[in-house]
């Protein structure tokens, strides 16, 4: 994970999210695909909680 060492410390970035995005990139998943997945998951979760 030499890429992580190249990042400057940033209080605004969550380490878990950084690791997740690096893992996704290493698997060939684009940030747009991750964003799409998160949006879909949020929509589904919101639908579960509607009366």
Automatic annotation (TrEMBL):
<dbReference type="GO" id="GO:0003677">
    <property type="term" value="F:DNA binding"/>
</dbReference>
<keyword id="KW-0238">DNA-binding</keyword>
<feature type="domain" description="Sin">
    <location>
        <begin position="4"/>
        <end position="42"/>
    </location>
</feature>
<dbReference type="InterPro" id="IPR010981">
    <property type="entry name" value="SinR/SinI_dimer_dom"/>
</dbReference>
<dbReference type="GO" id="GO:0006355">
    <property type="term" value="P:regulation of DNA-templated transcription"/>
</dbReference>
<dbReference type="Pfam" id="PF08671">
    <property type="entry name" value="SinI"/>
</dbReference>
<dbReference type="GO" id="GO:0046983">
    <property type="term" value="F:protein dimerization activity"/>
</dbReference>
<dbReference type="InterPro" id="IPR036281">
    <property type="entry name" value="SinR/SinI_dimer_dom_sf"/>
</dbReference>
<protein>
    <submittedName>
        <fullName>DNA-binding anti-repressor SinI</fullName>
    </submittedName>
</protein>
